[in-house]
C-alpha cells in the first residue's frame, strides 16, 4: 500500500497548541509570588517556559514535515545516545542535583533532563525493533528478550537517579508498545509478576519512598501533615477551594506560599483553584481530543512502524498525565512527575512537543480506510525480511528432531524445513518423484477400469447377439 503525503491532522495540532498556551499562562499565575519572593521579576519563570515552548514548537514543526521513517534509521543511534546521557548524569560532579536527585545535565539555568529524553527514545527503539523482528514476534529469545533488556536497562538507569515517577512512565509506555506489537502475552505477564514484588521492595528500601507511601495511606496523621503528606494536603485544599467555577485567574491562595513549588508537579491543584471543576473538565477534554486523534493516527497508519510510533507517543502523554493527576487527587502516591504541557520544565515541554511533531508526521501519511496491508518494504529491505523468515523457519528444527519415534516418516518429511540448498533440492526431487508415481498409478487405474468396462460391454454385446440367434 502506498499513500501520498497529505495535510497533517489539524485537530491534533490545535489540541497541542492549546495545551501549550494553557501551560504558559498557568505557569505564570502559579509562579508570580515565588518569583517576587526570590527577588526576580514576576514573569521570570513564565518567560523561561515561553522560550522553551518556542524552541519546542520549532522542533514540532520540523518533525511534522520530516518523514517519520527517518526515526527508523536513527533508532539504534538514539538508544546509544540515551544510555550515554543516563550514565553521564550519574557521574559525580557532572550531573546537576536538586532536592536530593541528580537528574539534569548543565547549569541551573540551561539544563537537559536525560530521563525525559529516554521516554521518547524507548518508544522509537521498540517500534524499530518490533517492526524489524515482525517475522519472529512469537520467538521469545529473538523478540521479547531483546526488547525487555532495553526496557529494563533504561528503567534501572532512571530509577537510580532517583526518579521513580519517570521510571514508572517509561516502563508503562514500553509495556503498551510491546502489547500493541503482538508479542506473546505469557512471558510479558510472567515478567510483570516477577517485577511487581521487586518494585514493592524497592519502594520500602528507601526511607523517603516508604514515607510517601505512608503519607498516601494516612495523609491526615500528625506525622504526615508535617512531612510527606503536607504537599498532598495543600493540593487537596486548593482543589476544594476552587469549587465549581474557581476563584479566577491569578487569584490562587495556595500558590502564595502554602503549596510548595506550585508551578511544577502540583500545578493542576492551582489550575483547579483558579478555574474550578468546570475548568478541569475543559482541560481534560483537550487531553481527550489529543488522545483520540493520536489513536486514530495509529489506526490509519500506513505501516507497522508508524502505528507503533503513534501508539507509543500517545501513551507517553496518557501515562504521565494519569500518574500526575492521580498523585494530585490522592488516587496514587506522590511520585514527582510533571503534567504534560502544563507543568513548568524546559526539557519536558520541548520533548513533548517533539513527540507530538513525530505523531503529526505519521498523520501526514495515513490511509483513508483501515487496511491489513503493511508497507514494510518501504522501511525494511526484502533481504532482511527474507533472512529473518529463513532463520525463524530453521530455529524449531532442534525441537522437531527430539520428537518421539512414533512420528511417521511422512509427517516428518512434511513438517521439517530444509536447512540447505542441497536438502531442498533432494526433497523437491523426492516430492516430484512421488507425484509422478501417483500420477502413473492413477493413470494405470483409469486404464484398467476402462479395459474392464470395454470387456464388460463387449461380453454384453456378444450375449445379446447369441440370444437373438437363439430366438431365430
From TrEMBL:
Residue span of region Disordered: 391-472
First-listed, main subcellular location of the protein, grouped into a coarse class: membrane
Subcellular locations according to the entry: Membrane
Catalytic reactions of this protein: [GlcNAc-(1->4)-Mur2Ac(oyl-L-Ala-gamma-D-Glu-L-Lys-D-Ala-D-Ala)](n)-di-trans,octa-cis-undecaprenyl diphosphate + beta-D-GlcNAc-(1->4)-Mur2Ac(oyl-L-Ala-gamma-D-Glu-L-Lys-D-Ala-D-Ala)-di-trans,octa-cis-undecaprenyl diphosphate = [GlcNAc-(1->4)-Mur2Ac(oyl-L-Ala-gamma-D-Glu-L-Lys-D-Ala-D-Ala)](n+1)-di-trans,octa-cis-undecaprenyl diphosphate + di-trans,octa-cis-undecaprenyl diphosphate + H(+)
Stretches with biased composition (Polar residues): 391-449
Residues passing through the membrane, by range: 12-34, 46-66, 78-98, 110-131, 143-160, 166-183, 188-208, 275-295, 307-331, 337-359
Alphabetically ordered keywords of this record: Cell shape, Glycosyltransferase, Membrane, Peptidoglycan synthesis, Transferase, Transmembrane, Transmembrane helix
Top-rank lineage group of the source organism: Bacteria
Topology in the lipid bilayer: Multi-pass membrane protein
EC number(s) stated in the UniProt entry for this protein: 2.4.99.28
Biased composition (Basic and acidic residues): 450-466
Enzyme class: transferase
Known role: Peptidoglycan polymerase that is essential for cell division.
Similarity annotation: Belongs to the SEDS family. FtsW subfamily.
Protein name, entry field: Probable peptidoglycan glycosyltransferase FtsW
Organism whose genome encodes this protein: Alicyclobacillus fastidiosus
Amino acid at each position: 500500500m502506498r499513500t501520498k503525503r497529505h495535510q497533517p491532522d489539524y485537530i491534533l495540532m490545535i489540541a497541542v497548541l492549546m495545551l501549550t498556551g494553557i501551560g504558559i499562562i498557568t505557569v505564570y499565575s502559579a509562579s508570580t509570588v515565588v518569583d517576587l519572593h526570590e527577588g526576580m521579576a514576576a514573569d521570570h519563570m513564565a518567560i523561561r517556559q515561553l522560550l522553551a515552548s518556542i524552541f519546542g514548537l520549532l522542533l514540532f514543526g520540523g518533525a511534522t514535515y520530516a518523514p517519520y521513517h527517518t526515526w527508523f534509521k536513527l533508532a539504534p543511534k538514539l538508544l546509544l545516545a540515551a544510555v550515554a546521557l543516563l550514565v553521564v548524569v550519574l557521574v559525580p560532579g557532572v550531573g546537576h542535583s536538586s532536592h536530593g536527585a541528580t537528574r539534569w545535565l548543565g547549569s541551573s539555568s540551561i539544563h537537559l533532563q536525560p530521563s525525559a529524553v529516554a521516554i521518547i527514545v524507548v518508544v522509537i527503539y521498540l517500534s524499530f525493533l518490533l517492526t524489524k523482528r515482525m517475522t519472529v514476534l512469537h520467538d521469545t529469545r529473538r523478540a521479547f528478550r531483546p526488547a525487555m533488556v532495553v526496557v529494563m536497562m533504561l528503567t534501572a538507569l532512571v530509577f537510580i537517579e532517583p526518579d521513580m515517577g519517570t521510571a514508572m512512565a517509561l516502563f508503562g509506555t514500553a509495556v503498551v508498545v510491546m502489547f500493541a506489537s503482538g508479542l506473546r502475552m505469557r512471558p510479558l505477564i510472567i515478567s510483570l509478576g516477577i517485577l511487581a514484588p521487586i518494585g514493592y521492595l524497592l519502594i520500602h528500601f528507601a526511607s523517603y519512598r516508604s514515607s510517601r507511601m505512608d503519607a498516601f495511606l494516612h495523609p491526615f496523621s500528625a506525622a504526615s501533615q508535617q512531612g510527606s503528606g503536607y504537599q498532598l494536603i495543600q493540593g487537596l485544599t486548593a482543589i476544594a477551594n476552587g469549587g465549581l467555577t474557581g476563584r479566577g485567574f491569578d487569584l490562587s491562595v495556595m500558590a502564595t506560599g502554602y503549596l510548595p513549588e506550585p508551578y511544577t508537579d502540583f500545578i493542576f491543584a492551582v489550575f483547579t483553584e483558579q478555574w474550578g471543576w468546570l475548568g478541569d473538565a475543559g482541560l481534560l477534554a483537550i487531553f481527550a481530543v489529543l488522545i483520540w486523534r493520536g489513536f486514530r493516527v495509529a489506526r490509519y497508519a500506513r505501516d507497522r512502524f508508524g502505528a507503533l510510533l503513534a501508539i507509543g507517543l500517545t501513551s507517553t502523554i496518557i501515562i504521565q498525565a494519569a500518574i500526575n493527576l492521580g498523585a494530585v487527587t490522592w488516587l496514587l502516591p506522590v511520585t514527582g512527575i510533571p503534567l504534560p504541557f502544563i507543568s513548568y520544565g524546559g526539557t519536558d515541554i520541548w520533548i513533548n512537543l517533539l513527540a507530538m511533531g513525530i505523531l503529526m508526521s505519521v498523520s501526514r501519511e495515513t490511509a483513508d480506510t483501515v487496511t491489513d496491508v503493511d508497507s514494510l518494504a518501504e522501511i525494511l529491505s526484502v533481504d532482511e525480511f527474507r533472512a529473518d523468515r529463513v532463520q525463524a523457519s530453521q530455529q524449531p528444527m532442534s525441537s522437531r528432531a527430539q520428537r518421539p519415534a512414533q512420528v511417521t516418516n511422512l509427517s516428518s518429511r512434511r513438517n521439517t524445513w530444509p536447512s540447505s540448498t542441497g536438502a531442498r533440492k533432494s526433497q523437491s526431487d523426492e516430492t516430484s518423484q512421488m507425484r509422478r508415481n501417483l500420477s502413473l498409478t492413477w493413470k494405470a487405474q483409469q486404464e484398467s477400469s476402462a479395459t474392464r468396462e470395454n470387456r464388460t460391454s463387449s461380453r454384453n454385446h456378444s450375449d445379446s447377439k447369441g440370444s437373438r440367434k437363439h430366438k431365430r
